[in-house]
Request: fold
Amino acid sequence: MNLQDIPKIKHHNANNFFLLCGPCAIESEDMALLIAEKVVSITNKLEIPYVFKGSFKKANRSRIDSFTGIGDEKALKILQKVSNTFDIPTVTDIHEISDAALAAQYVDVLQIPAFLVRQTDLVVAAAETGKVVNLKKGQFMSPESMKHAVQKVKDTGSDKAWITDRGTMFGYQDMIVDFRGIPTMRQYAPTVLDVTHSLQQPNQSAGVTGGRPDMIETIARAGIVNHVDGLFIETHFDPANAKSDGANMLHLDNLESLLTNLVAIRKVVESLKNS
Reply:
């Protein structure tokens, strides 16, 4: 799987990590365009290959009254508008087999949520669209077991798969990143570190997931040092009032300084690797 195979991807020859970044969920057209415009400006400046991320619906909420979306096609059309406006690729997650063909009409990368990555029919349906498939490692799965998810994509005749580590359950209400898993998963496919979801604190008694956004730079730096191919970061201009996952999103105002530091670290790591 080569980055240049993704339509509209920029800076793929810059020898940088690639970035999946955007809000947890599409809340409105204005918010999506505002966030995309800011991230595009930063990633162009730093020469980071960029894919805009936004969920067109959230099907895995703890409570039935949680925000799930603004309407499937409405949100997907906003993702398409983001792509056309800024000439960038987009990624969204799917939850049902029927979502695959629908979402593939609007986005460039289909993401399989961590809780669903063992669902064979869902993975196969995503792969059969011909789109890149981003396989999120289940919180309950070992790094070694992700080779089977990648193989399901390959068995459809496609090699367009990524693996994303989003942490492993540590007790009932916390996540931990085991960085030993990164070199293991990179043997199977390009590997992404989902920085913000790795800092979730799930299963809170209130039914709303908590998080540790103060640790975002710590985890992201460690990922770069350990040679991840890409980073996944959810961001919002007002996380406290975001309709989904606000507790662990990065404030948009803090994104440029974070990415600037990470690019600098990447250059040092690459120089050591080549020395």
